[in-house]
Amino acid sequence: MSMSMNSHASPESIPSMNRPSSGEPVTRNDSANHALSVRVRDLDLWYGQFQALKSISLDIYQNNITALIGPSGCGKSSFLRCLNRMNDLIPRVRIEGLVEMGGRDVNAAKVDEVALRRRVGMVFQKPNPFPKSIHDNVAYAPRMHDIVSRKADVKALVESSLRDAGLWEEVKDKLHQPGTSLSGGQQQRLCIARAIAVQPEVILMDEPTSSLDPISTATIEDLMDRLKRRYTIITVTHNMQQAARIADYTAFFHLGEMIEYNDTKTMFSTPHTRKAEDYITGRYG
Amino acid sequence: MTQAFDHIEAQLRRRHRKTRLLKALSMGALGLAGLFLVLFFTDMLIKGLPAFKQAQIQVEVDYSEQASQLPLAAVSEAVRPLVSRGYLRLIPSRMRDDPALQGTTRSEWVLADGQVDQYLKGHHSKLSDRHRAVVDRLRAEGRVELRFNTRFFTSGDSRMPELAGIASAAMGTVLTLMVTLAVAFPIGVMTAIYLEEFAPDNRITQLVEININNLAAIPSILYGLLGLAIFINFFGVPRSSPLVGGLTLALMTLPVIIISTRTALRSVPDSIRHAGFGVGCSRWQVVRDHVLPLAMPGIMTGAIIGLAQAMGETAPLIIIGMVAFIPDIGGSITEAATVMPAQIFTWAGEPDRAFIEKTSGGILVLLAVLITMNATAVVLRRRFERRW
Prior knowledge:
Number of strands of chain A: 10
Helix content of chain A: 25-40%
CATH architecture of the largest domain in chain B: Orthogonal Bundle
Oligomer: heterodimer
Strand order of the largest sheet of chain A: 6-7-8-3-9-10
CATH topology of the largest domain in chain B: MetI-like fold
Helix content of chain B: 55-70%
Radius of gyration of chain A: 19 Å
CATH class of the largest domain in chain B: Mainly Alpha
Strand content of chain A: 15-25%
Radius of gyration of chain B: 29 Å
Number of helices of chain B: 16
Shape of chain B: extended
Strand order of the largest sheet of chain B: 2-1-3
CATH superfamily of the domain at 61-75 and 113-251 and 258-280 in chain A: P-loop containing nucleotide triphosphate hydrolases
CATH superfamily of the largest domain in chain B: MetI-like
Order of helices and strands of chain B: HEHHHEHHEHHHHHHHHHH
Number of helices of chain A: 10
């Protein structure tokens, strides 16, 4: 990486930044510039006896890409899955703390996780299209949620979703072939089309390019950059260059704690914590 | 220190020898199994195929007034013992149904007695020397011959081997299996779906799981006792009926269907479930729209194999009285019926040697149906299999 690695930049130069004090996470409040999308406060998560997330507090801003980085097992994926309650599927998981979206605590008993997942789409590490045709992969969820029902509307929505995912030109002549017949990168864009077909507010991406080749990765990164105009994107990545390239904000996780949350530029040029700096410069991870 | 090439080669020779030995042994085992299979099938075919042919005899039938009272009078005394009594017995009722027959004499091909049939096939026969001479003469004249035995496939059981057929047992099997499928398939599949997709993993579900696995290994005759105690004695389901048989076999088939369905569900990758949950499916939608379509081939294969197993089952049906003498082809699930393996069992116990070939013929029919069912399972599997 060619970025400057000076960890002693003066914090005063960045407005509204908490001063790094020993042991306390560095966090970032940009609510002056951006509308808030997800507010997380003191989030703890246990798998049985093991505490995977320790008191995470974080503000995620609309129409930005927020990258979660950190070594394996640091809790970044667990954190991501808290945002659409995918952790509910895991037995013996316990979550405490606040995840607020649209003024509501998403973990509250009266919030239906199905309703939540309509507003928070998800793209997984390995492309996982449904064992259906390309068309049905995209049309399935909007039909299920009664967003569209007339045939012409379905067709139009499938087209617009595939266009938004940058896949339309490649698949418009073979919409009735199975989604699994596509290449890995195309499958991942199909999964993105599937996620945006229900017009969510937030899209969670769990290492969306880790199983793809560099060219497909670049295509997906361009796509994410375009999609952030309409969606709030939160992505987990193992690839720090990727975070540096595409993310507006970056959160560094380590051993279940959020060590530093900052705008990407600061994070990669002048991180405020020793651990983040060590990780970013490749001393561990 | 590196070993010399010679040393390595000597060691390798020993290892290769062992490989060859093991390969020869496993091929021998396969060959032996194949040999037994070929022997078994050849024996069945040699013994069973003659059952599909039956002796017919051409005689003058006199539909006289006397014959309508005493059917034996319809054929001349010389050939009377050569004609099936079962055929003669039907003459009065045929004359009543068709008045045009009254007073006529016709030359007809009629069913020969079972002993004639056995004699023609070269088996042991109780036919006297005088009658053998008559049969030989008639055969030379072309008035006795073996013809395809349609009766075997169209009529029910009889005490007279030349009249006995497998149709009533086949109908019983069909009705019984329909009951079994209707009961065991939905209950089994839904149970498996609950256990695999909905149930929490706790003590109770683990206990249920262990019990289901054990149920699959219980001797089938115990299911018969259960059927007798619960369905017949407690619920008053008619005894010997396809209903009680089907219910009993359903109990027996349930564990097979549950276990195979669970295996099929488990083989669906979790990524498909996550994809479903990710777009906001409820649990049931995930199962119905994404998991079940992928698991279907496995579920169907399990169900068909379970049914094939149930079809070959005799022991529990003996207890609930389905080893019955059923000459008529029934059409209701509450009438007494028998099933194919039970029919084979009954024939195997008959003293008349002519029933030996009926037994083998019945086994051939049963095997043919079983092979058809298993082939259907393979075809269904192929057809519904999808890539993901």
